Every structure is written in structure tokens, then in C-alpha cells.
UniProtKB/TrEMBL annotation:
Residues 216-229 have a biased composition (Basic and acidic residues). This is MARVEL domain-containing protein. The chain crosses the membrane at residues 21-45, 51-76, 88-107, 138-158. Residues 181-229 are annotated as: Disordered. Keywords: Membrane, Transmembrane, Transmembrane helix. It comes from the Eukaryota.
Length: 257
């Protein structure tokens, strides 16, 4: 089955790929290490009929819970969609439990000063005791890495959730009604010879009488007043036309005679 990169279930992932997988890898490795050391300690404590400390129970529970949470979220990430809000709730709860477990472990080993001493047979009076010292240091280191990486994943979830809220809700193209309507309009055939443009506006029924205009030959009257054009050039043109007419009549008369 081939999946598109950073696209899960047809919906793009909102997580940045490198920080997302890097933090999850650190969480997984540290959780598996803590769970393995806790299983080793609890097995031998039960074998020797010693009571199991609450520190071991808390670390064992939170490490297993982290492994299960990582498995569930990676399935959601690859096959459906991993909601930043859902992952934020998971990492928020795990962060609190990891912080509590690390605090309890640090307090329990503070009296023996395991972290400050070298893990050698000379210091601990035996190889078995030196091995337990190394296990405790590894346990504390992995618990610290798990706590820090889980808090960092929580910060990444919060950042991604805020960014997704600013962008708005994602809608698949086939679910967008506006996009579907536009696609239908583009696919709708338009018959040839048919114009769907706007109809030209028709001239309103305005008559000369409705605006007070009266046409009378060469004069235009507005409201009964003569507004004929009179000017010096108009008078000279009329005089020239009369002279030209008289000359033409005289010339025709001489020709007849």
C-alpha cells in the first residue's frame, strides 16, 4: 500500500515531519528502556518476596502507556488523521505522569547518591552492586529523556493546534458546495447562437411635448418662447443667399429675352 508523503486519508497532516518523528522516536526508545529496566527490577523483587516501590509502579505504568499512545497515534497519523487536539490531551497527561515518576525516582536515589558515585566494584563492594548502580543511572537518564521529549511533544502539539485554528477548517474539494457549483457551471454546455448577455436598456417614452419642446419649421420653442438661432453670421448668410437668388433670376431673364 502506497501512501502519499505527509498526506493521510486525503487530508494533509498539520505536523512538521522532522520534529514530529524525532520526538516520537526519543519517546519510544526511552519508554522501552524504562519499561525493560522496571521489568527486570520488579521481577527480582517479586522473586525475593520484596514489596515493589511505588516509584517503580509509576514508571512502569507511564512507560507502557507511552508505548501504547505512540502506537495508536501512529496508526491514526498513517491511515486517517491525527488531530493535534487529541494528541495534545495524550501528551499532556503523559507529561504530568513522567514528571511525577522522575521526581519520585530522583528523591529515592538521593540518599544513596547513586548519580554522584562511580559504578565500580571497589566503590559498591561487588560487581552485582555495581551493575545495579549502572541500571539506576540508565533508568534515571532514560526517565529524564522521556520526560523532556514528552514535554517537547506537548509544545509541538500546542503550536500545531494554534496554527491549524488560524488557518481554519480543512474541507475536501468534493465536499465544498461552492467549488462543486462552480464546477457544474463550467461543465454546463452553452448552445451556439444564444447570447446570455444583458439586454440593452430601452429608450424611455420621452416626447417633445412632455419636455415642453415644440418644433415649428426652423424654430424651436421651449414653453412658448422663440429660441431660434440668431447671430451676425446667420444674418450675413441670409443676405448673401438673397443676393445670389436675385442674380440667378436676372440671368435667366436675359437668357429668355
Amino acid at each position: 500500500m502506497v501512501l502519499k508523503r505527509n498526506v493521510r486519508g486525503g487530508k494533509p497532516s498539520e505536523y512538521p515531519r522532522i520534529p514530529f518523528h524525532g520526538l516520537r522516536t526519543a519517546q519510544l526508545i526511552s519508554s522501552i528502556t524504562v519499561a525493560g529496566i522496571m521489568s527486570y527490577f520488579m521481577y527480582y523483587l517479586h522473586l525475593e518476596h520484596f514489596s515493589i516501590p511505588w516509584t517503580f509502579i509509576v514508571l512502569m505504568c507511564v512507560s507502557l502507556a507511552t508505548i501504547v499512545a505512540l502506537a495508536v497515534t501512529i496508526v491514526l497519523y498513517n491511515f486517517t488523521f491525527l488531530s493535534p487536539r487529541f494528541n495534545l490531551i495524550l501528551n499532556g497527561g503523559l507529561s504530568l505522569i513522567w514528571a511525577m515518576g522522575l521526581g519520585m525516582l530522583s528523591w529515592s536515589i538521593s540518599t544513596s547518591q547513586v548519580l554522584a558515585k562511580a559504578c565500580s566494584a571497589y566503590v559498591w563492594n561487588g560487581e552485582a552492586e555495581a551493575g545495579v548502580c549502572r541500571d539506576y543511572k540508565a533508568l534515571w537518564s532514560m526517565s529524564l529523556i522521556a520526560t523532556v521529549s514528552t514535554f517537547a511533544a506537548l509544545a509541538l502539539d500546542l503550536h500545531t493546534w494554534k496554527k491549524s485554528n488560524r488557518r481554519g477548517a480543512y474541507v475536501l474539494p468534493e465536499d465544498d458546495k461552492s467549488s462543486q457549483r462552480l464546477r457544474d457551471l463550467n461543465l454546463k454546455p452553452t448552445p451556439r447562437g444564444t447570447s446570455e448577455g444583458y439586454e440593452a436598456p430601452r429608450q424611455q417614452g420621452v416626447t417633445p411635448q412632455s419636455r415642453g419642446l415644440v418644433w415649428d419649421g426652423e424654430h424651436t420653442e421651449l414653453g412658448g418662447e422663440d429660441i431660434g438661432y440668431h447671430s451676425r453670421y446667420g444674418a450675413e448668410a441670409e443676405a448673401d443667399e438673397e443676393v445670389y437668388s436675385d442674380a440667378l433670376i436676372g440671368e435667366r431673364t436675359r437668357g429668355v429675352a
